[in-house]
Amino acid sequence: MPIDDIPLGEIRRHLHHLVALADTGERPRPTRINGPDHPMPGQEWVIVEDVDSRVPHTWWVRTAEDDHGRDIAAIYLSTPESMAPGDDFDCVRTADARRIALAILAACDRADHLAAGVTRLEDHRPTP
Question: In which order are the strands placed within the sheet that holds 71-78?
């Protein structure tokens, strides 16, 4: 299909996909750093989902520091479905959080390949 015949919506979808891929290429900077006077001092990342909704779907990911400024080996996660999003957090050990994050990245890769109609050899490997 010649470039002139590609609908604008299709170009936007491709650009959105490319930006999403670029955003996963390096670790994002924290949205804010909560100081020692905050109930959960440490770094915080706020992710607003790109959904077609009047109500934003927001995720909060936090680290917390102890009284000596050392990170505690856990992260705190608040999802859009939390009872009080941004105030209600679940604690996840860092080892578990890393496994969850890698599984999400793997699932995103798989979904992107399926959407593009590209079959990957690794998608057909038997699970151990």
Answer: 32-34, 42-48, 58-65, 71-78, 90-93
